[in-house]
Model the fold of this input.
Amino acid sequence: MPSFYVARHVRHLPSQMFDLVADIERYPEFVPLCLGAHILRKSTDAAGVDHLIVDMEVGHLAIRQQFTTRDTLDRARMKIRIEHIDGPFRTFENIWTFHDEPDGRCRVDFTAEYEFRSAVLGALMGSMFEMAFRKISAAFESRADEVYGRAPPGSGP
Done:
């Protein structure tokens, strides 16, 4: 099964990066290949963990795919897990974790594992997915710079 991992050290707080990744309906504004994102259902459990059902549409050129995910947003653990429910994947899971760095910055770990149901779609999209995952992780850092500014936390004006 194809997998992807990247760690990025960003000049923003873990809580800020968590908020950006949790703001799913804004993804079409800045996430490469994301054409649409809609929260269908949201609930919060007794531990304060949010559970979402999300419809996503992704595409590139003439290829468009829609899929549904179960997203678990665990702010206490600074972890977001995205799991495939329905769509073109046999399996699909993304995990984001956000870690404090000693200088007030954040290390963002992003992992993805996926397998398409169709071998043809896998051949068409597979090589593009690794490039897309790299661009996606960079897009969140750029978005954080845009929303929160470029200065490291606590660096003053």
